[in-house]
Design a protein that fits this description.
mainly beta; 17-stranded mixed beta sheet; two-stranded antiparallel sheet; 10% helix
Amino acid sequence: FRGFGIDQQQVGATLQRAASAWQLGGDSALAKGQVNVADAAGEPMQVNLEYLSLPKAEGLKGVDAESRDPLASVDPRVLPAMDVQVARVLYGNELLGAWRFKARPQAQGSQFSDLQLELKGMLLNGSLSWNQEAEGTRTRYQGRLAGANLRDVLAAWGYAPTVSSERFRLDVAGDWPGSPAGLSLKRFSGTLDASLRKGAISNVEGGAQALRVFGLLNFNAIGRRLRLDFSDLFGKGLAYDRMKVRLEGPQGVFVTREPLRIEGPSTLVELDGTLDMAKDQINAQLLVSLPVSNNLPLAALIAGAPAIGGALFVVDKLLGDRVARMASVKYHVNGPWQNPQISFLKPDQQKP
């Protein structure tokens, strides 16, 4: 079989007549199942598959993996109307889950609705259009990606399981050049609105490239630098009740329309600025609010320096016994977003 960018050997096929339709059965390494083609014009094909195996794209010399589009040669205007159900979708040898959607032709391409796609612990729903435009094909998507424990999802996709959650969701509205399979954050334009509930962020030591942003601050190191003990707060990581962020921007340059906000039982962390995925750069301010008991040097935390003796003197002179229960300190985060420079901001350097 050759067609739609597919070249398959050893394909088994059956064709039989049913009431008002033809039934085509297929069995190959790519897919196994049945397609019903109705006699009535305009009726969508009914596609029911036991499995669909999507081959992993082979590496191309000199080509960024995120820039490859395995469906670049497919014209979306030739896709027929289909109601599709697949019991098992595999990517290489990895099971993604069950998929269900409807596809309908439109003037410039195809519209996909009622999306229900399982992706190794996540569920993607919503609607998507894939059109041929003057400058080439373009995909537009609006919907939600959601799941339970993000730690399990990260591990399933090959990332270090540094963030756990009771549940999470990501609302997406945007577009990118190419087919649905050509999605890349470096080329995405639109809005990403994420929220996580009840979990923890583990301390990162050198790994988890895609999650290094959560390791911008090593709280244990800050504690040692200020001679403060945060072990009762963080333990093996930073516990949070809620984490949320809203990003918006064109072609991979995202601005925090709502800051990344991590709310813990007794802590608050906020990241506000620009994340340039196209150039792998970050430019932001990071706010950390921590509890300070009456016998700890508040001024040392605010100054970001270990001068405990002088800090105690300043606290005694300015505040006496009225030491705040919570203290906040801001940092400037700038440079490669996986390994940025973090510098303390004095009050007159902080943006409103």
